[in-house]
Amino acid sequence: MKDISNMDINDLSKDLAPIISNTMADVVEVRLREYLKKKSFRPGDALPKELELAEALGVSRNVLREALSRLRMLGMIETKKKRGMVLARPDILGTFERVLDPLIIDNSTLQDIFELRLVLEMGLAELLYIRKTEKDIQELENIAKKEVNLDNSFRIKNEIAFHGKLYQMSGNDTLKRFQIMLLPIFDYVVTLEKKPTRGLVNHLGLVEILKNGTVEDFKKGMQAHLQPHFDRLK
Amino acid sequence: MKDISNMDINDLSKDLAPIISNTMADVVEVRLREYLKKKSFRPGDALPKELELAEALGVSRNVLREALSRLRMLGMIETKKKRGMVLARPDILGTFERVLDPLIIDNSTLQDIFELRLVLEMGLAELLYIRKTEKDIQELENIAKKEVNLDNSFRIKNEIAFHGKLYQMSGNDTLKRFQIMLLPIFDYVVTLEKKPTRGLVNHLGLVEILKNGTVEDFKKGMQAHLQPHFDRLK
DNA sequence: ATAATTGCACATGTACTACATATTAATAAA
DNA sequence: TTTATTAATATGTAGTACATGTGCAATTAT
What we know:
2 copies of one chain form a homodimer.
Chain A: H1 6-15, H2 24-38, H3 50-57, H4 61-73, E1 77-80, E2 84-87, H5 92-98, H6 107-123, H7 125-131, H8 134-146, H9 152-169, H10 173-191, H11 203-212, H12 215-232
Antiparallel strand pairs in A: 1-2
Helix pairs in contact in A: 2-4, 3-4, 6-10, 6-12, 8-9, 8-11, 9-10, 11-12
Chain A binds a DNA duplex through helix 4.
């Protein structure tokens, strides 16, 4: 009975959703999530002890601990030896970081992330003009000035420093951390290309706009600066 | 000896990094990561069996499985009953989704994510103008037209549909999924506010620009549309 | 000899027991 | 009342045992 045609299988799969062999740990993880939500635990609240949870769920302590281990990795719970477990605030980006490796991400997603960075930098303008300070602009200018006579390897570092400073000036820590994580991906994609490209507006130009120009000027400037990257999209 | 002043502790902590009580599972997780990287495993490659790994690391199978459970949750490894474990491609956003709950994210991060959404929508323009099609614009217009005579609850759904369509038109799946995840957060922040706000440019206006205007026109339009949100920032 | 079937070997999944460790709480001593 | 010691207890780790299901090989039938 091995020669069932693909058509038959597809027809069947419309009516019969495939049974995904969830392991107990998977199920327990979901159940614990639901439990935490339903009881609307707040960070700091104590949880029942392992044996109670295991018994309530009808699984071995082993399985329960595998599920707890996952939540612990995400920072959702913390455990002290005798006090038991407490709900904690997960670091939303910390978990993200764990899977952000250019080597294991497929090319399509790499491209998406590359574009995501472009979108972020283009959208930064409003925040920048709301929160920029004289001091920040001065520091940004110092970075931009440094790069005039640098060889190639150092220029890349400076490029990162400049754009990183922009994110920091946005006053949004999550955004800043996000950018740092995306950097390796961005680098990876850029280095896949043959020749280094250069936009019509350089870093000093952007600083000049930040000093005396309007938000719209800055958007145009950033667009021109990133133009080579946009040109590659389709 | 309990009355050491905070100053003393802070001074010390500059020189002596606190010892974070890593559990074995934490260590094993890191070691496995390093191992996978060092051996430069590719997706699909088979891993040694649990007993071998446990023995090599000098830990019980129990501890090893807690670490493996984490990697499995992230989608980094998959296991088939007899075949053993194989390296897999993690879903970079799947892990993110697990910790994105407005109730457990602190207010500062909530605000950051709210701003992140604004940044994304402002930065979308370039991608939109590179990839928009007649068909997409038509669909977008249909969504915008529907909302003219809708009561409040349905208008919110339509609002989501409209902006969601914009992300979809960007042709960037990761971005689109990202937006869907951020939606609950965004909603949460918006509903914290008193009165619903409305921008100078409405959805139909944005569609009109997409049809006949330039990228710069669209950026200005989107800026006007989101202006009430930007006004709240400081 | 080839194809199909059956059965065995083996890796993972789950359960249970046992003990180490650390921390809180209670008790005893000063 | 304060300090020191001890006991209780929840998590951390190890080890054993067995269930389950899959791939491979041996066996049988054509």
